[in-house]
């Protein structure tokens, strides 16, 4: 399988949204839900801003078809959603690289999504590492969070990447792990 990685452009938005809504909480099939879902309901405008303002959408394609995406952006971008606003307020409760984490030395990675046709085949690691390498040019620390009811995502991120759990927190009746790693 030949996996190609690239920074997405506006021409990719429609196909990324199609992949996204296959696994988004409001539209995912009951059968797929056990393997994880994405909460945020992104629009075309959100993804266009993510691409144009943040250069923060990364995709994997196989035979020209988008099979995975990873998002990453500044806390300023994410703060339009209350959950991230909450995270920004509490960034300083943890450290990474011996530094207190803040909105300047870190960015937020995620969500990530791999189509079920290619799960377990290394696409996750590839899109993760690609996104990390791109963002390492801008930030020393990556921060992310994982819902505790998503064990597949937790296992993938804690065994196949250098992320480690730095905190646990609750928001809106959900429990989350907060994770971080250095980018370079
Ligand atoms: C989360 C996701 C990106 C991971 O990519 P992936 O290709 O499925 O990851 P992998 O299969 O390589 O790794 C998952 C690991 O979890 C294990 N796993 C699967 N179901 C599990 C479960 N219910 N509990 C614990 N571990 C589980 C797998 O066996 C695998 O471990 P192994 O390789 O050691 O056997 C992908 O499943 C996905 O897109 N899910 C839907 C959207 C989502 O949840 N995104 C993340 C939240 S934003």
Automatic annotation (TrEMBL):
Organism whose genome encodes this protein = Psychromonas marina
Query: InterPro entries, alphabetically?
Result: Acyl_CoA_acyltransferase
Descriptive protein name = GNAT family acetyltransferase
Q: Which SUPFAM superfamilies match?
A: Acyl-CoA N-acyltransferases (Nat)
């Amino acid at each position: 399988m030949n996996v190609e990685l690239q920074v997405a452009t506006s021409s990719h938005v429609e196909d990324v949204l199609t992949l996204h809504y296959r696994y988004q909480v409001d539209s995912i099939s009951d059968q797929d839900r056990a393997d994880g879902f994405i909460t945020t309901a992104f629009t075309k405008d959100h993804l266009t801003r993510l691409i144009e303002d943040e250069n923060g959408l990364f995709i994997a394609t196989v035979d020209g078809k988008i099979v995975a995406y990873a998002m990453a952006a500044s806390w300023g971008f994410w703060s339009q959603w209350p959950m991230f606003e909450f995270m920004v307020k509490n960034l300083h409760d943890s450290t990474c690289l011996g530094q207190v984490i803040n909105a300047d030395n870190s960015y937020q990675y995620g969500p990530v999504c791999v189509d079920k046709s290619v799960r377990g085949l290394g696409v996750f690691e590839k899109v993760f590492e690609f996104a990390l390498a791109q963002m390492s040019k801008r930030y020393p620390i990556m921060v992310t969070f994982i819902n505790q009811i998503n064990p597949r995502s937790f296992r993938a991120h804690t065994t196949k990447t250098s992320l480690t759990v730095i905190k646990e927190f609750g928001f809106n009746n959900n429990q989350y792990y907060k994770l971080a790693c250095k980018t370079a």
